[in-house]
Amino acid sequence: MARVPEVLFLCVHNAGRSQMAAGFARHLGGDRVRVRSAGSEPAEGVNPVAVEAMAEVGIDISGAVPARLGDEAVRSANYIVTMGCGDACPVLPGREYLDWALDDPAGQPIGVVRAVRDEIERRVRELLRGI
After folding, report:
1. Active site amino acids
2. Torsion of CA 45, 21, 78, 6, to 10 degrees
3. How many structural domains is the chain composed of?
4. DSSP per residue over 45-104, as a string?
5. Do the domain assignments include residue 1?
6. Residue 58 within any structural domain of the chain
7. Which domain holds residue 103?
């Protein structure tokens, strides 16, 4: 039986972009993809404005908890999507890497976060079509 592909979304604080991407991937990908997210320097909690923006499109990320990036998560991932973590994001052979240049929603008003959310949704849909 074929292994379900795993996607790992990475950013620095694992509080905004990567959590929104993981929320979309879980929602849109269902059981055909395994989804994780992590950060190189995890925040204490998820950005409340990101939670609000995702709730507007019917996706609840309020229970998400920022996680520290670990070797096991990287080793098990087929696809690694980085969002602003630079050199802190590890590179291992045999994985498909995507670097999404997206504005950091931290400290931004809801209008900016909505635009980031919508771009993340577009990119997640594109990613899932290729898996």
Report:
1. 11, 85, 89
2. 80
3. 1
4. S--HHHHHHHHHTT---TT----B--HHHHHH-SEEEESS-GGGS---TT-EEEE-----
5. no
6. yes
7. 6-130
CATH of the domain at 103: 3.40.50.2300
Asked whether residue 53 is domain-assigned, the answer is: yes
Is residue 87 one of the residues assigned to a domain?
Answer: yes
Tens digits of pLDDT across the chain (131 residues): 558 999 999 999 999 999 999 999 999 999 999 999 999 899 999 999 999 999 999 999 999 999 998 888 888 899 999 998 766 666 666 778 899 999 999 999 999 999 999 999 999 999 999 98
91 close to 74: Cβ distance less than 8 angstroms: no
Amino acid at 113: V
